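Appendix B: complex inputs.
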Amino acid sequence: MQRRTVLKAGLGLASLPLLSRFGYAADQKPVSFWYESATPENQEALQKLLVEGFNAAHPDQLLSIDVRGSDLDKQLRVAMLSGTGPDVVFTAGPSYVAAMAQAGQLLPLDDYAQKLGWNERVLPLFLDLGRYNGKLYALAKTYETLGLFYNKTLFAANNWKAPTTIAELEALADEMKSKGIVPFAAGNADWRPANEWHFSIAMNAIAGPENVYKALTGAIPWTDPAFIAVVDKLAEWWDKGYYGDNYFSLTLEQSFAQLATGQAGMGPTGTWSFTNVPTYFPQNNAEPGFAGFPSASGDPIFPLGIGSTLSVNAQSANADGAAAVLDYMFSDRFYSEMNSVWQGEWNLPLADLSQVKLADSVLPLYTESMKQLASAVGAGNYGYTTWTFLPPATNTYLVSGLEEVWLKKTSTTDFLKKLDETFRQEKDAGKVPAVPPRA
Amino acid sequence: MHRLYIVPTMIINIVIVAIPALLTIVLAFYNWDGISTPTFAGLDNFRALAADRVFWTSLGNNLIWTLLFLTVPILMGLLAASMLLIVRRGSNLFQVVYFIPVVIATAITARVWQGMIYSPVTGVFGILQKYGMPIPNPLTQPHLALFGVATVDLWHWWGFLCVIFFAALRQVPQEQIEAARLEGATYFQMMRYVLLPGIWPTITLMMIMTVIWSFLAFDFVYIMTQGGPAFSSELMSTLAYRKAFYDLNVGQAAAAALVISFFGLVGTYFYVRIQTREGEQ
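Resulting structure:
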């Protein structure tokens, strides 16, 4: 009797994971989507705008989102390797897509793109960036750029204007230093790869996108004098104290707060920082400004970054449902609704933003900056970010290697030599993400 | 029939320990990005590690870490445990106080030290700086970062050793302690001739385990510095993690893991030898 009770209890427990399957209505097909970290407010937005919105528009499908946290990438890799994982696959960028597509874990999306009209709706450059061996495997979920945030109120009080050339930037930074203001609001205590933002900014502003393109395609090495000038300039800015004394101690948010309080003057960071503007600027009675980072020529260059991508699992039992989710996201309505409550993470690369209507509460500066970026990309006048265009090992070496240059543990030439060696090894192994030809 | 009792533990050990361990050994000889099909690489992964100066930095850091943990917390633990033995009043309270850091989750301890103590903006160090004491955040200084993290781990760890040593000290025959007292032994004589010899097996075991644990150290470094700045606090385990999950080079990560295991095996060998000798006695 006792043994039978134990047996029943065991069977009952073992069947628990299957219970959710019985929860679906007979005519609804489940679609699973694993998401990375999201605050409670953002999770609510996902639930309301994506899950409920999609399920209402597709009565035959049942989308569910599982928020997996910052370890999503590792969990996903293990799951995909064992032939499971979610139907909608969220990756951290094109370099992951290349490896997954190479291993046959992602479904080619060309037929869906044709059938559902993505080829017309998505900016062509982003379709190129999602291709591997000529087939479309991923759509960019969010694209972003790097630029210069500044405190307009502080600038007005000092009669400063946003710099457009490197010489102007340096003159302004020196003046800020003489007034006891840290020129660059920057820190990497909670996100060490923040170093690569500074590298990406400098390589586009100083070496120029053409040289970066040549290096990415292997036409010139990373040890080219153009890149020596980039690293030397970054080292010079570090030595002159432009990044402040607390770069390794400050978190991204703390450094951004210093920009709002006027302790720091300019913030060389990405459009994701717009999310921190409402938290810090109004309470300090300050107005934010955002401009393209100064360049050698004086024309702003917008380095293009893809924060994450979306694909369909090759093992998915409901690939049509997963493609329908992607299709739902790439619509004017979803773009408008999501970006009205959550800016920076859902900047989907729609080709035409004229039908997009954001809520009045959204900073006009954000809308303006995104439109500027979209038109720069549309005109082919964009730069490159390391996390989007460099293969994984080259990129991780860059993060620590730049610190070694800053802290005088290695020289510019040795750093670039190792960067180039690592890049060549990964290029030979086919791990360099797609680099579309320049217009 | 009674042999069947070992089946559940055997299954757990084979599935959770033996198979992953064997796979790690095999993967150390393969090129694998963790996604596509592995290809045989012979000794390439070991050669690449040997040529990588970060590997040698992290190995050196692991040795420094081991030396620190073989001395500081053991001395602190012994001192506090012997005090608890001599001054019995309030010893229960002190045991609890010493043990609290051990039970606090690593992530919380690390974040508290990082944000509330070391930070120049939100921490005690920041307040000290405002009052004219220019103490830098150790986590940001290449020559101090490893020690900055080790301090936090030591704070978290030494209470455990104290409680273990106190438990062992209480097993030392009371008549020996009384006799030493009657003979007029000082504190140091008592430690040297009575207490330390009485708990020597426990100290040896803890030292061997410290060697093994030191090569497995990962959490505090990963949370507080991620091996930086400029690789200055990189340990073998954080190197392996970075290789596997950031560089997508699982083969080299497995090779680094084998090096960690080698030091663990040396520790285990001495542990087993001592245990066997004690068993024979």
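Chain A touches chain B through 30 residues (CB under 8 Å).
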